[in-house]
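Side project, low priority. Logging it here so it doesn't get lost.
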Amino acid sequence: MKHVITLMILLSLAACAEQFKQPVGEIMTSTNDDQGIVGGRNVELLSEDAGKAVLIIGKLKDKSYLCTGSMIADDIVLTAAHCLGDPKNIKIVFGADPVNMGAEQITKLKTFVIHKNYNPKLIIRNDIALIQTEEKKPKNYQIARLPWEAQNLSNIFKIKTSFTVMGYGTITGLPTKDKTDLRGSGTLRKTELNLTKFSLSQDVFYADQSQGRAVCFGDSGGPAFVDANTIVGMVSYNIIDDPSRPDTADEDVCNYQSVFTNIMRYKTWILGGIKSIRNLQIKLK
């Protein structure tokens, strides 16, 4: 049965950056349909891609926000730790365009696990979390393949430097009247980004966003895919400007670099988190 989310509800949501210091979020696109989409494209409703990401609606200090996640089991969502503002108010929405077409399903958070060392103020943030949903995913939704489950992908970026990102965030990193521009929020889009480097600890990798393709407000927790459905990374945050080039600073907070949690680096934590959810059944208090 289709569930409906009104446009007013989604447009009233505050972007992730208003809750969290670093902006994270969405695919850069043109706002003029006659010129086509620049840097990103809407995911078709009946395509396989429509079942590769979920919309997360959360609340923190009476302010709502959007994030993105991906299913790694029938009832487990992988997302960013900073997307768990107030776990009791989390909703997981299935559907590529719930604003205009209605959601396939809306469910609540049942249990969750956040990395115990998550800290957005540290160099190694450990920005990763698992959500168990009250209901299982719709049948048409895919379970993302974790990188250690795929053959010949342990060193994927030695042979391939591009990947596909997906998210439900805004279509621009430019503000409007000193506020986040929320246009495009709630619609699933995708684009391709290029890897630039890994961190020294290998906990994250970086992508170039200077070519008109980017993740931005609302794409937090969104997947980075290679080999169609193998998830290798997850949107954590953006670096707004080049620190070595202050002369290039501008108002667009999503046109320099994005940072992704490296899924392979967190293999032990992810497997342990799934086991905790299954065996311990962590409950909200």
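Brief comment: The radius of gyration is 17 Å.
Revisit when time allows.
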